Prior knowledge:
Layout: E1 22-29, E2 32-37, E3 42-45, E4 47-49, E5 52-56, E6 59-63, E7 68-71, E8 77-81, E9 85-92, H1 94-97, E10 105-107, H2 111-123, H3 131-145, E11 149-150, H4 160-171, H5 179-185, H6 190-200, H7 205-223, H8 227-233, H9 239-250, H10 254-259
Antiparallel strand pairs: 1-9, 2-8, 3-7, 3-9, 4-9, 5-6, 5-8, 7-10, 10-11
Amino acid sequence: xxxxxxxxxxxxxxxxxxxxxxxxxxxxxxxxxxxxxxxxxxxxxxxxxxxxxxxxxxxxxxxxxxxxxxxxxxxxxxxxxxxxxxxxxxxxxxxxxxxxxxxxxxxxxxxxxxxxxxxxxxxxxxxxxxxxxxxxxxxxxxxxxxxxxxxxxxxxxxxxxxxxxxxxxxxxxxxxxxxxxxxxxxxxxxxxxxxxxxxxxxxxxxxxxxxxxxxxxxxxxxxxxxxxxxxxxxxxxxxxxxxxxxxxxxxxxxxxxxxxx
Length: 261
């Protein structure tokens, strides 16, 4: 059986082993930071409410409610959250982890998998044992195996210069500046800025700005801001434009997301 006590006061698990291929974790987390650590098993890091920032394997991921972050066995990772989060995580055996990507990645989370994770949380079960629990656990494993890698996560830069530029963008999201204006403020051409983004981030500058706005919407909703306030603060042309984006990304309206709490 599991060496129980699924978490320390810091929220980092201290189990030593678990039976079978899957172990479920479910917590309500307050804003906090979790120091770098690793596990001998794989981990699917998922929040059904809130937002978590994860540094793993030399990359930085943002974990929102519409996808998860896969952390392979023995890969060191740290994380932090600035808003309260509903945490739904699973640990996967080394054998099962071989069916998933070798590197950390953002992966899809099906509606069925979300429902299974919520049901284990409702039952307050971490290690499935009954016939019904084992059946649900197998459904979760099947859904995880069928997940696909996503390329819509938010990559972060390696160079100090690009980090400074993107930090400036994040501080001024309400001001919809052109790529040329931002590049000029940092003594470079728009073409050079785009090239740096493609080299370090793998995506264009405009695409990165779109993704950071999407991630920030989740944080602002959890902070209690109105749709109109969020649209203004993040530079959307209107509340309806924000709602349209959110429905496309999250599969629900902002109010439906907020009412899930």
